[in-house]
Amino acid sequence: MTSNYIASDSQICISTIQRLYSILKGEELDESAERNNPNETSWMSKKKAVPVDYTPKVPIEQFDFIVIDECHRSIYNVWQQVLDYFDAFLIGLTATPDKRTFGFFNKNVVSEYTYEESVTDGVNVPYDVYTIETKISQKGETIKAGWYVGRRDKLTRKERWEEEDEDTEYKRNDLDKKVVNPDQIRTIVREYKRALKMEIFPNRVDAKGEYEVPKTLVFVKTDSHADDIIKIIREEFNEGNDFCKKVTYKTDEDPKSVLNRFRNSYYPRIAVTVDMIATGTDVKPLEVLLFMRDVRSSNYFEQMKGRGTRTINNDSLQMVSRTAKSKTHFVIVDAIGATKSKKTDSRPLERKHNIPLKDLLNAVTMGIKDEDLFLSLANRLIRLEKQITEKEEDKLRELSGGKDLKQITKELIAAYDQDEIDKKAASTPLRDHSPALLEEAKKTAQEELIRQAASTFNGELNDYMENVRREHEQIIDIVNIDTVTKSEWDTTSLDKATAIVKDFSEYLELHKNEIMALSIFYNQPYKRREITFKMIKEVFDKLTLEKPMLAPDYVWDAYATLSLSKGVTVPNQPKNELTALVSLIRRACGIDSELKAFDKMMDENFKKWIFKQNAGKHNRFTNEQMDWLRMIRDHVVSSYHIELDDLDYTPFDSQGGKGKMFQLFGDEMNKIIEELNEVLAA
User: SUPFAM superfamilies from the entry (predicted)?
Assistant: First the structure.
């Protein structure tokens, strides 16, 4: 990679095409050459290419095969002679082949991997397009004679005021080249800010109620255009210099340092670039691409879009975007019409933006066969796959006949993928290969693919996926404002609270024989010491998924409402929802006659037990023994049960573990653990 020769014992060589050229020529490489795009301005393009002659140091049979990465741009014109020199198989890799690529390789495509396939495989994320149009952006405007307007030097940006002698009409393509209209830029930025909060990513509000702007990359026309946009973005978002940065080669800061912070740190939230981050740069947390420049090259546009497709795990995303739960998709905000012309084969999967997931699911189940429906449903399920937990995925497989979300989405997309239809049709035996029979085979193949994709869905699976989606998604209405019109208890509140308590009790009763924890509470009251953390978590997970309105918070508030109406005060809900759930179950199944905070109740039971142990004795336990007993109490409060083996883990292990407790309590150790398990949860 850095030498000017090929070692004789090398089995694999990695090199830029510039370095390989210099080795063949026997010349020292200009180190700056490798920093340039070999197909654009470089040391080589400034002089006439000299043919590569045979050199014994590098025979033509040096390599068995050559792999050319990014082969859409680096193997043409002056560079092709480097590859032509060798007698080797050539393997090209590129995400964006163009006509030159297909021509160079004689249309010999060995393997294709479409954007849609990469999305369904979880390699990339899907995207949506949000359009912002303004009057001047679309139609331009006219500067009237007699107006005083600014004139600015493009290079120095020095301004002067001047009266116009005649009318000057400018078109949309003149913007930010011949004419700069700050209000046109400001209008777009202001609308982008509004759309972010209201429509694009409305759920990015932190604990302080402040909106967190997702990582945004803005593509602009020129370096001067970038300066104008950065100034207006900082003003409109009311943020400082760190919030929005320029990432171009013409900047006072090291562009690599800015890019690294954009990728790995909280600030900047918005980066503005002309072309430095357009290709070959990985910024995984990116969630928005804002186009304020048009792109005529389909390859270049694909590369620019590729900046947003990168997947990222939830923890890494939340390190730089705290309010983001997972990167399920990215959004192209088109403020210039860059997506209108057909530059690319890839397309957004989402076709039915305003239709709820449950309606899409039901439509497929009811037998509706529509491409937009299938693709939109695939898009929603791809997003859900990024959020779903392993436990939820297992349940989904059970309901779908063994399929996971990746397989389900692949089948939905394949139903209208012409390549998949042709492949299936080709495997069908035919009497002959007449056009009519081939067409009939394709029709039958598509019908089978549609039937296969739709057959997965059923009422129970649909309900489960909708419940899971609700569990992972919140709707935050920041549009409608509210005012207080009345503040008092009324009969509807009491009726609602009564219904919630009734539903909760009925739900527990219905499932008491199938959920272990409920079975113990209801049927074996004297063995409640067998309740474990895992058992309570099972009740909690099932309840919040199937009956989210019966989550502990809601049920506790309902009990509080009913008690207050009778003049009885309910204790504050425990901070731990699982502990609160234990209190509610005990109340619902009749163990407790009134709602008690289970953590405080266990503390009271502990005090009573200690008092009983000291009855007739003076301080039966030493201070060190009391410290251990309190640790056991705290463990039971959080985990509902303690086993002898738990003494080998935190916090007991740091105090000597099982051996230390035996040293303190001797043969009574097992008896004390058994008693505390029973007494604390009594």
Answer: P-loop containing nucleoside triphosphate hydrolases
